[in-house]
């Protein structure tokens, strides 16, 4: 990423922090005209998503949840109590229009997070989740229609909640066996406040602040002592091999006369390979040159 792109990304992050978390007004005085235009386009692109803002949870009033039933009012109150104060909850007008056989949704809401949107749908009848296996294929269509949806929370009037994720709605290849596994729910039914609060912690993990890195953490390795030790061992093996050869063998004299000069020559060659001055493909040629010097 170029330096200009870095400046734009930093300015965009400052804008999001200001808009969503109440950070300071972003300073764009250091951006040129082209960078300001790029920043404007990115901000407009974010606005066009029409997503639910995460917010600070410090506004004078909560966003309208649009609960129209007694069960809905109770559910929204429970969500506000269980979820982080910064979580934004708005009504989901599309929920009652979802056409899935056997799925009767009375009303719905969207919980906004930086990690994605959770659609909370209140079902009309208790015990409705017993038919949930019939919905998986069609729920996949919902995720394709609303790609910003990280999960759908199907909630019965008694607050029993089944959390559905996109990967639940399609078959997959199981690793390492390579067998095809059908659609299935990966999360058990839990009370809605417990299910959503746990899932939110997964979407927005807590990160410890990163410490400043002022010095290199990796130490340097002295190559020459290691190279000399390995070269000495290799030369000793050759000298020993020469000593075992017959006296009439012409290699006997050459091998037994190897010594400190050859050890240092091989060590220098290893150092050169480590430094990149000699490639591994050139090692044979360099060893021949060392042999010719004798």
What does this structure look like?
The structure is a single chain. With 294 residues, the chain is an alpha+beta fold. The protein has 3 domains: 46 residues, no CATH class; 134 residues, 3-Layer(aba) Sandwich (Trna Endonuclease, Chain: A, domain 1), CATH 3.40.1350; 70 residues, no CATH class. The chain has 9 helices and 8 strands. The strands form 2 sheets. The protein has a 6-stranded mixed sheet, with helices on one face. It has a two-stranded antiparallel sheet with strand order 6-7. α1 crosses α2, α3 crosses α5 and α6 runs antiparallel to α7. The longest helix has 22 residues. It is elongated.
Strand-helix topology:
Elements: H1 3-21, H2 33-48, H3 70-82, E1 88-91, E2 105-113, E3 116-123, H4 136-145, E4 149-155, E5 160-164, E6 172-173, E7 180-181, E8 190-191, H5 192-203, H6 223-244, H7 250-256, H8 260-275, H9 283-292
Helix pairs in contact: 1-2, 3-5, 6-7, 6-8, 8-9
Give a brief outline of the structure.
With 294 residues, the protein is an alpha+beta fold. It is 43% helix and 13% strand.
List keywords for this structure.
elongated, six-stranded mixed beta sheet, Trna Endonuclease, Chain: A, domain 1, 294 residues, alpha+beta, two-stranded antiparallel ribbon, single chain
- Extract low-pLDDT stretches: 49-63
Category from helices, strands and their pairing: alpha+beta
- How does CATH name the architecture of the largest domain? 3-Layer(aba) Sandwich
The CATH top-level class label of the largest domain: Alpha Beta
According to CATH, the fold-level topology of the largest domain is Trna Endonuclease, Chain: A, domain 1
The percent range for helix content is 40-55%
Rg to the nearest angstrom? Answer: 34 Å
The helix-strand sequence is HHHEEEHEEEEEHHHHH
How does the major sheet shape up? 6 strands, mixed
Total beta-strand segments: 8
Helix run count = 9
What distance lies between the first and last C-alpha atoms, to the nearest angstrom? 54 Å
Strands across the major sheet, in which order?
Answer: 1-2-3-4-5-8
As a percent range, the share of strand residues is 5-15%
If you average the pLDDT, what whole number results?
Answer: 78
- Structural shape: elongated
